[in-house]
Amino acid sequence: MPSSPTDSGVSILHATCVEVDGVAVLFEGPSGSGKSDLALRLVAEGARLIADDRTALSAAGGRLRARAPEPIRGFLEVRGLGIVRLEPSECAAEAAVAALIGLTANRIVVKRMPDPAERPVLGFNLPFLELYPFEESATAKLRMFLRTLADPEKLVE
C-alpha cells in the first residue's frame, strides 16, 4: 500500500477509513473500486467516516491511528451526486486501526474459505480481508469479520 510520508511522522495513504463499532477499518483499492460507496453504506448503518480517499496514519501508543487530512475532514464523494459534507455525528476524528479491507472489482477472485491473512501497513501487521464491495451483504460481511477478530472462537476453520 503506497504511502506519502510527511515531516510530522504522519503518512498519507490512498485509502478510505471508517470507524465501525469503535475501531477504524481501512479500505484499499484503485479509484472506482467502491471505497467511498462502501463507506457511504456503513455510515447509513451508523458507522462514522474518518477519511475518504486519503487517510492520515501515525503510530501512537503502540497502535496505528487513522484520521483525515484537515482539508478533506468530513467530506465524502458520492458517485453521481458529488462531494458531500457529512453531519458531525456521521464523522469520527480518529481511531485505532483494526483491519485492512482490500476491495476487488471482481467478485470471482474472493475466496469462499480464505486462510486468515495479514498485510503490513507502516510496520503494523493488520488483519486483512478481500471483499467485493458492491455485493448487498458487503457491510454485513465486514461487521462479521470484525466480530471474528474480537472473538476468534466465532470462526470455525
Automatic annotation (TrEMBL):
<protein>
    <recommendedName>
        <fullName>HPr kinase/phosphorylase C-terminal domain-containing protein</fullName>
    </recommendedName>
</protein>
<dbReference type="GO" id="GO:0005524">
    <property type="term" value="F:ATP binding"/>
</dbReference>
<dbReference type="InterPro" id="IPR011104">
    <property type="entry name" value="Hpr_kin/Pase_C"/>
</dbReference>
<feature type="domain" description="HPr kinase/phosphorylase C-terminal">
    <location>
        <begin position="12"/>
        <end position="86"/>
    </location>
</feature>
<dbReference type="GO" id="GO:0000155">
    <property type="term" value="F:phosphorelay sensor kinase activity"/>
</dbReference>
<dbReference type="GO" id="GO:0006109">
    <property type="term" value="P:regulation of carbohydrate metabolic process"/>
</dbReference>
<dbReference type="Pfam" id="PF07475">
    <property type="entry name" value="Hpr_kinase_C"/>
</dbReference>
<dbReference type="InterPro" id="IPR027417">
    <property type="entry name" value="P-loop_NTPase"/>
</dbReference>
